[in-house]
Specification:
2 copies of one chain form a homodimer.
Chain A lengths: L17 E3 L2 E4 L10 E6 L11 E6 L5 E6 L7 H9 L7 E5 L8 H21 L9 E5 L9 H14 L4 H10 L8 E7 L3 E8 L12 E6 L5 H14 L15 E6 L9 H21 L7 E9 L2 H13 L1 H8 L5 H9 L11 E4 L2 E5 L2 E2 L12 E7 L5 E8 L3 H8 L4
Parallel strand pairs in A: 6-7, 10-11, 12-16
Antiparallel strand pairs in A: 1-2, 2-8, 3-4, 4-6, 5-11, 8-9, 9-10, 12-17, 13-14, 13-16, 14-15
């Protein structure tokens, strides 16, 4: 703990942290690390297994600016349609999130449920002394697609969550627990700038925009002073290089949502550059945590395509390899099967010359100029972390995608999910 | 057996067969069903396990016209580069195929190996009395990418294969066995037109153009009289609706090859329409056999997208769903998880309205107008064959893709393949 850092209203943070983006990054705090935020996580009874399933994040201000990024899927869940609509104002007082049901493909009645949930949050917060309108409340849901939510349990839960709102760390951590579905651990990260201003966040799931259907939900908070436009710019820049480059199985959820809320409570107005760097650092760390806890993961894999003609082409190439089932099963088997890597990059719609490609596993070259390197089949991939590096030697652009292996655990978990 | 059918030079075919494309389709014969073809399959010692690994198909004429379709992968194996080159003449005397090694990513020396193999076939056939040039010999290889072939075993094997050439059924069946890798059964099909003219074929693997990396090799023969141009038109039309619509895991091999050879020995010159229909029937049946024997398959799945704005859009939609890991694992678990189907079709870059989509499993509607149908979760998918039907209700186009589930067997087989 640095001498000049006393998080308000959270408890002190004793974790040593990592220096990044001009601040100190810790995983012991989340959305309540910045001043001006309260959170809660409770058991409303939406999940059959009795685990926590309802979270609430409250921005006490003085400012209420906000931005969001949503799934690119054309089939959007009701809460996504609701939240996109309310965010056109650039203001959010609160976010309510439930696990235990996605409220997707539920038609007009499902949209009414999201609307009603926001109204219930607004009424409960107003009763509690914080004047709030439904249009200031974003809604996020995650779970099985196609079923209506049990509103008879969810709505009383909203009132309970408002009563439970606490300013300390426990509120943020409770909220991080309540949004978990197949996650095995909650994911939080906070970046402290010498006690002057802070960014915090929580996330669940395994992807966003390109990634896994295990819905990704993420709420980021900051006590910086920033307009909705500044938040939007920071959030888009941050998600582009973090969550957008996490690709577990190429699927994209109907519910993926990333929200950024600013309270302005620090009275510090960082530059756009500083704000973007801080939000990016938190998103990047959360993306790392999502990869490490992806469904059935036994390997944490970073696929880098470098030497590409452009960043777009590097991204397409890395994503194509990261999604390839044959590469992913080989990695699960700790098999340095570089031939599958070449076959995978060969179908990417990008400029390449098969006779110039160089491939390395964990720094050991396995293929040079498109031909196997001596000892390539003996490279040891038995560890958990695998760096797969593909140099196209066409240009200067490079992109890294985080992914995982394709394991028995993935098949097991996803073949039994709705039962 | 029909009274007027006496296959020459193959043995009589007693299988009852299926009426299709104006002929009788049987699976007991392959490339030697049409007159004018001989084939062999032998053990050259390329495979470590001692199984048959070298096949030869000989066209005895009188005509030698031929056509081919090759992998769309930019990383092409040496035998593909060789065969594409020799096929520019529109003539083939023979095809030599080896399992036990793909000869891909082996550089200029690997190309020399393919060239040398063709020369050896030409020399051995010429010694045997059939004057042949290397430029009349196509080469196909399948197996692990990245290793040179054991030419000291392969070249003597070529001479042995020429000596083994037999006109009867056993030659075609031996050849079908010798090209197997992870296949558990050989795949053959023949279409007889009342003893007048015939099409036969053999295949191995699990895909083509979009499909699995388990290289797809296929040789089709016919005793019809047809020019190289007619064969090319027939083959492209046939593969477009058969192998191109088989998609096990979205991967595309470096070695995929489909060849069509005509001997003209029947003296029958069918119309283009008749030729295309016959070649399509054989390719379609082989595609069905490939699906049924795909790596780790426990379910045979047909994904149909109908009501699309165009055939292209229907194809993109069906392919997107067929490749979706979450749909495929749900099918493995016999789980009618239609929400994943909607989420998958929602990321396809095609025109759709989420509120108009109807989904059925095996004829039972599970989602109507984008909302779950009553009883949707109780649909029984415990059988082996699963029809997944998605109606977009935008236009009139429909396409069906054959695929499989994503099973433990798939992970097992592909995580241990190179070891």
């Amino acid at each position: 703990m640095t001498a000049d850092f006393t998080p308000e209203p959270g408890q002190p943070d004793d974790a040593p942290g990592t220096e990044v983006a001009g601040g100190r990054l810790v995983r012991s705090q989340g959305v309540t690390a910045p001043a001006g935020f309260r959170a809660a996580g409770i058991t409303a009874g939406i999940k059959a297994n009795g685990n926590a399933d309802l979270a609430l994040v409250l921005n006490e201000g003085p400012e209420l600016s906000a931005a969001g990024v949503f799934t690119a899927n054309k089939v959007k869940a009701a809460p996504v349609l609701w939240s996109q609509q309310v965010l056109t104002t650039g203001r959010l007082r609160a976010v309510v999130l439930n696990s235990g049901g996605a409220n997707a493909c539920t038609g007009a009645p499902g949209f009414q449920d999201s609307h009603k949930t926001a109204e219930e949050v607004a009424a409960a917060l107003s009763n509690w002394g914080t004047d709030t309108g439904a249009v200031e409340v974003a809604v996020c849901s995650t779970g099985l697609i196609g079923d209506r939510l049990p509103m008879d349990k969810l709505l009383p839960g909203v009132t309970e969550a408002v009563h439970e709102l606490a300013g300390g760390l426990s509120g943020g951590t409770d909220a991080a627990y309540a949004i978990m579905t197949t996650d095995t651990v909650p994911k939080q990260a906070a970046l402290h700038h010498s006690g002057k201003w802070n960014v915090g966040g929580m996330a669940k799931g395994a992807g966003m925009l390109a990634p896994a259907l295990a819905t990704m939900l993420c709420v980021i908070t900051t006590d910086a002073v920033a307009s909705a436009e500044q938040l939007d710019e920071a959030l888009r820049a941050a998600t582009r290089v973090s969550f957008d480059r996490l690709d577990v199985d190429g699927a994209t959820s109907t519910n993926d949502t990333v929200l950024l809320l600013a309270s302005g409570a620090s009275n510090v107005a960082p530059s756009q550059e500083e704000l973007t760097a801080a939000v990016t650092a938190v998103c990047d760390d959360l993306a790392d945590q999502l990869m490490a806890d992806a469904e059935g993961v036994t390997k944490r894999v970073r696929v880098t395509v470098r030497g590409a003609a452009s960043e777009d082409e590097a991204l397409i190439g890395a994503r194509t390899v990261a999604r390839d089932s044959l590469v992913k099963t080989a990695v699960f088997g700790s098999d340095p099967n570089w031939g599958r890597v070449l076959a995978a990059i060969g179908i990417a719609p990008i400029e390449l010359d098969p006779d110039r490609i160089t491939v390395s596993f964990n720094g050991s070259p396995v293929c040079i100029d498109g031909v196997g390197a001596p000892g390539a089949r003996e490279v040891d991939l038995s560890g958990v972390d695998i760096d797969l590096d593909i140099d196209l030697r066409i240009g200067d652009a490079a992109v890294t995608i985080r992914t995982t292996d394709l394991s028995h655990g993935y098949v097991e978990e996803n073949s039994a999910y709705s039962s």
